[in-house]
Specification:
five-stranded antiparallel beta sheet; Immunoglobulin-like; alpha/beta; TIM Barrel; 17 strands; seven-stranded parallel beta sheet
Amino acid sequence: MNRRLFLQAVGGAVTVASLPPVRGRVMAAEIPNLAVASGRPKLIPRFADGRDWFFQKRFGMFIHWGLYSILGWHEQHQWRARVPREEYVKLQQRWNPVKFNPDEWLDQMEKAGMKYVCLTTKHHDGFCLWDTKQTKYNTMNTPYSKDVLRMLSDACHRRGVPLCLYYSIVDWNQPNYPNQGRHHELQPQPGDQPDMGKYMEFLKEQVRELCTNYGEISGFWWDMNVDKETHLDRSINDMIRKLQPKAVINNRGFDEGDFGTPERDYENGGEDAMCFARLTEACQSVGTESWGYKSDEDYYTDRHLMRSIDKYLSRDANYLLNVGPTGEGVIPPVAVAILNRVGAWYNAVKESYENVVPATHLTDNRNIMITRRDNTMYVHLHRDPTSETVKLRPIDVAPRKATILNTGKPVEFAVTFAPTDHLDQKPFLRLRKLPVNEMANTVLIVKLEFDDLTAIENMHNKALDKDDIRKR
């Protein structure tokens, strides 16, 4: 550490001149997906092929849309409300989303800072949003009589937006799917002809259509049950990879896929993990009750959504934030307002997620996350701050500049020996007088620009080496 800077820091806050931010660029192949074990990063390589778009476009829009949107209650209305199939299918003749404009969806997506989109081409109810030849239960045989997926895919390709396709393995309409009342399945219905072999042929042909007729597809998002007899049928994902080599595939289908899919806040086991052991894409909806349109939805707070987004993106994961358009094809005004507010925050702080590596291991403060690019460090306050000060123990080096990324305002900092550090008898870096009360409804991110972060990394490695020696 620079001795003069150290002596200044011990005496109080360090005053630094305003300097331009560091704009170092890290190539995709150099950015590892880290899983920290015993404090040591373990590198997971990128794909080194066309799927690497996934690492560059980290924030996406999930869209749950289908017949259930007409009723405005839940995307699983048929199952949760115990509606007989013969009654539910009548919705097909009410499908007429005359206000659907894919460019308006993409405009909203881009305004919120999102870079890709994932559409439910077929949810559990079996209704298909494309011109499939495998069933008449699709958008072409409705008053609307238009290929929804064609409209969206054309808009995405024209605008250079990666398009991912959601597909439910469960099917409450196809007579060969063995609905047996299991998890997310209907009870047996009149007209059922359960035959998993025939259903799998139906599924494969639908997947072939989706991967053949709509240009470049960037991802395939499986959902729901995989029959025990078919869960090892890797030929299905192999077909996707052959037809669409740039498509990433999730882990809910017929093999382990390319990435994991934590949903909402159900999986808390990795809440304190500094990084993920594998590629991850979290998903969350703006509403608490439904992924599809709900007319009287109970919406999450902005703060909750921002915290959720931050705690994943700062750990090198991707994030899908979902909206459910109405039966007319319009994203509800309340959802639009949420996207606008979340987007305003995200666009202000997105540099802390782009071309960075997770670096939370550099501090023992587990109430924050850290990302890093070259000699710039970003401190993410993804949990409710307990005070106006954030201590970055054991870092004892002052940055040359500290800024609240949300607002661009400077942050007071100091390297001082505080009373609570008496056991260490050392000074540590503190970020002071943060506007935690004034900005309580957001996630604060502080940008720290150092002359050289190598010393901090070396200090961390030496501490680990000493710990390893003690354990031997």
